[in-house]
Design brief:
It is built from 6 helices and no strands. The protein is mostly helical. Helix 3 packs across helix 4 and helix 5 runs antiparallel to helix 6. It is elongated and about 75 Å long.
């Protein structure tokens, strides 16, 4: 065993509050975790997505009811839920494209992985910001 291998710290019991906040996750790890979270979020909110689709496509009366819910007293909360869904879809889509490229053996080295992870994060957040501004009526 080399001298350097002996000097490495050994963690047997990781303290959640002490050790995990100081751990620096690489951008690819952040994208991977967020990809799973966004997929779970879309799965959990699937009934809400189906309700929105049903209300918006059934008739003009149901569409008016659908839009009035977003203008009601809890409209801001529903808009935040929609914004979370927008982010989840965009992030999951961008990260999925990244994974498909990696399946084609494109961008497998460390530098390309870091760059593609940063692009996924920047692109999904930028698109979410633009669509969020549209959702909340900025333009």
């Amino acid at each position: 065993m080399t001298e350097q291998a002996k000097k490495r710290p050994e963690f047997r019991n990781i303290n959640f509050f002490k050790d995990l906040p100081t751990y620096r996750l690489p951008p690819a790890g952040i994208v991977s975790i967020l990809h799973r979270i966004s997929g779970l979020l879309m799965f959990i909110l699937l009934p809400f997505i189906l309700w929105m689709m049903d209300m918006s496509l059934t008739s003009e009366i149901s569409f008016d009811g659908f839009t009035s819910v977003f203008a009601g007293p809890f409209g801001w909360f529903l808009k935040l839920v929609c914004l979370a869904l927008i982010w989840a879809y965009l992030h999951h889509f961008c990260a999925g494209l990244r994974h498909l490229l990696m399946d084609l053996d494109i961008g497998l080295d460390k530098a390309a992985g870091r760059t593609s992870a940063a692009v996924v994060l920047a692109l999904s957040l930028t698109l979410t910001l633009i669509l969020g501004l549209k959702l909340f009526g900025a333009f």
